[in-house]
Amino acid sequence: MTKRSLIGHSCWAAVAVAAFAFGAMREKGNSSSAGDLSSRTAGKSAGSRAQGASGSGSGSNPLSGRAGRSGVVRSGGGEFRAALTQEQLAGIAHQAFRSGNPLERRSAFGQLLESLTVENAGSILVLLKENKPDKDQWRDFHYAWGGLDGNAALGHAMKSKEYDLAYTMSGWAAANPHEARQFLQNLPEDVQTDRELLKRSLVAGMADRDTGLATDFVFELAAQGDRRAGDYLGEVTGEVLRSMGTEEAALWAQGLPDGELKGAAMDRVANNFVNRDPEAAAAWAQQFAGESYAARVIEEVGDEWAERNPVAAVDWLESLPSGRGQSMGLTSAYGEWSRRDPVAAGERIASMPRSPQRDSAISGYVSSLSYRDPAAAIEWANSIAQDSVRDRALTRAGQQLFRRDAEAARQWVATSGLSAEAQRAVLNPPRRR
Asked: Cys-Cys link to 332, which of 8, 68, 77, 303 (CB 3.0-4.6 A)?
């Protein structure tokens, strides 16, 4: 099964918009402000994620559209009013963290973010620390501060011990992507910070604003030889899935330039697709069964589908053209099937003629069986016709035997016929995670 790791880049808009909208209904005369905020945060599309944000580096907050650098706040109706005093901010913070009503807490916290300016950001940060915000509130504040005043916010994040680098950079990139990118490119080499985290967060923030812009940036990184470009595109793909839905995301992914990055994006979509509708996901993936970049897509669909209906998944995989995708898919599907019903999976394999497909099926079967019965797994592995596939399966099974009975593994490996390198791998299995 393919595992994903994603940074916790902020999706604060849904929380803040809901909170502020609720508060706006309670605040006389502020209904137009709520409408302004909603249009700037909820009305994002895949092609332009933050139409209200300024990409010129002006520093206006794309998330609220109300708090500016000058210490005055502009309402949705266009009029200006003075920024809140420290006493007023403290009162809102007290309600945001101490009110017994959860709706009032969320509304007040949304108002606190709405009141954010360059001048009072430090004061609001102090109020947050005094009231011990939860991780979502901490994330939302730094995302908003990054969008308002990226240089100051990120400067603080790089010096502080709090884990707020990712949130701050994402907020900055969502508001001023070119400015945030320039900052990272010009960051002196002697500055000690997590550059990988900053780059990933930059992509995530760009995707919040404009998935097209983020996609272009990732392909640019790939052209420069960045080995993590596939991971970065995963951030973009996640945002496309969230904002466009599975079917539209599938069309977006298949429209990318052919290659490894396209395969990585399609793999991420496939994981989402097959969990919703395995048959539809299989029909979509089958179009690309002959493409080298889509091997992981076929594997992902087969693997996830086998968790629900292994017979259907295997039937589908066997119907595909021979190739790496089918081979990987059969290995994963039989691994899942063996975990759930080893007898049925074994009977299906026994009925298959000798072929590369059967070898792939046994390989997956052995990978699961070796945890329960390494001796039986070794017997099955020995029936694999292809030398390379058989040796890998025997090595995995032998490692499980060594973990259970080291002496038995030493006796077996001496007569196993494995290469010296494979024998060393059996007697030195990797430490389990």
From this structure: 303
Contact status, residue 398 vs residue 416, Cβ threshold 8 Å: yes
Q: Within a 10 A sphere around the Cβ of 420, how many other Cβ atoms?
A: 7
Residue bearing tokens 């005094």: 130
CB neighbours of 282 closer than 8 A, spacing ≥ 6?
274, 301, 305, 316
SS3 55: coil
Name the more confident of 63 and 357.
357
Asked if residues 305 and 333 have their Cβ atoms less than 8 Å apart, the reply is yes
Q: Nearest-CA neighbor of 31 among 40, 20, 16?
A: 20
Q: 57: left (phi > 0), else alpha (psi -120 to 50), else beta? A: left
Residue 15 CB contacts under 8 Å (≥ 6 apart), including other chains: 106, 110, 136, 140
Tens-digit pLDDT profile for residues 380-400: 999 999 999 999 999 999 999
Q: Beta partners for 73?
A: 67, 81
pLDDT at 82: 62
Domain ranges of the chain: 1-194, 210-276, 285-433
- Give the residue among 391, 379, 383, 387 at the shortest CA–CA distance from 361: 383
Question: How long is the chain?
Answer: 433
- Residue in the block written with tokens 């593994």: 409
Considering only CA atoms, which of 333, 339, 337 is closest in space to residue 319? 333
In sequence order, what are the residues at sequence separation of 6 or more whose Cβ sits closer than 8 angstroms to the Cβ of residue 113? 16, 20, 63, 64, 140, 141, 144
CB burial string 13-36: b at 16+ within 10 A, e below: bebbbbbbbbbbeeeeebeebbeb
